[in-house]
Backbone:
């Protein structure tokens, strides 16, 4: 039986992981793209990305394009697995309720 | 956990995943709009201008198209688009395929503009179709549409082949591009 993941359970982190997992493996997104897609503030997003990175669910890479700083984010295999298990747990809750 | 919360979470997951995918598709849409417009002008030139003048028009349009594609890519990068490791090999592959086409045209002695255009158009259609296999079926559908229009135009209206490709081919490409952008917006 799959278990809910308390880290991913938080609404913003759930949406971050959903966005990153929807990309093909090896694809990455820019911080700004993620912020705009999720419609969250940069500060709020940074905090949640840090938590996910500490858990090893995502990788955050800071680079420069010319003189502009650019932050790339992508889901790790561990993060994809954790997210898949969390989704399975949600589906099992509904199945148990017969929804 | 409250089942209603589980329903909400699953709905939020589906919405975000769909939104992210559509945003990625929208970026490809701008390239299609650019090249659809170039096809429209270029093939109109092929239909109504003399061969040599038309060739120069195409040369100019190709330069504009390549410069525009690079500018669009840079703009999207600065705006924070999704980045796929596939793009670089796809770009190299496209250059190799177009080079192969010109070699084929030269070796087979295809001298008319229509013969050369057919080789290029069918290759572009195949390239879209193949790229769609690795990204989204919608791109494959555009490739299949371009291929079908090319064959139908040259068979049914050979005298107006370029006009058909300007209006229908360019229209299909630009129209698909607008659709991708609208979906992603």
Residues:
């Amino acid at each position: 039986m799959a278990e809910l993941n308390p880290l991913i359970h938080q609404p913003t982190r759930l949406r971050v992981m959903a966005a990153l997992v929807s990309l093909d493996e090896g694809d990455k997104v820019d911080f700004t793209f993620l912020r705009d897609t999720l419609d969250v503030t940069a500060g709020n997003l940074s905090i949640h990305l840090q938590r996910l990175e500490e858990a090893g669910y995502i990788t955050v890479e800071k680079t420069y394009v010319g003189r502009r700083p650019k932050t790339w984010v992508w889901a790790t295999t561990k993060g994809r697995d954790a997210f898949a298990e969390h989704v399975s747990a949600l589906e099992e809750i509904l199945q148990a309720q017969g929804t | 956990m409250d089942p209603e919360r589980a329903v909400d979470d699953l709905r939020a997951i589906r919405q975000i995943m769909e939104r992210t995918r559509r945003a990625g598709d929208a970026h490809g849409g701008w390239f299609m709009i650019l090249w659809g417009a170039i096809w429209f002008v270029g093939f109109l030139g092929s239909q109504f201008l003399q061969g040599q003048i038309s060739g120069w028009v195409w040369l100019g349009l190709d330069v504009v198209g390549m410069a525009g594609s690079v500018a669009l890519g840079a703009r999207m990068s600065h705006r924070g688009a999704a980045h796929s490791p596939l793009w670089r090999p796809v770009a190299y592959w496209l250059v190799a395929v177009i080079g192969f086409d010109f070699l084929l045209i030269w070796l087979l002695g295809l001298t008319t503009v229509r013969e050369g255009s057919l080789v290029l158009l069918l290759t572009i259609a195949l390239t879209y179709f193949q790229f769609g296999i690795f990204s989204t079926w919608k791109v494959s559908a555009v490739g299949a549409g371009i291929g079908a229009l090319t064959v139908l135009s040259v068979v049914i209206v050979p005298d107006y082949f370029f006009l058909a490709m300007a209006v229908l081919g360019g229209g299909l490409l630009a129209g698909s591009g607008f659709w991708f952008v609208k979906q992603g917006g």
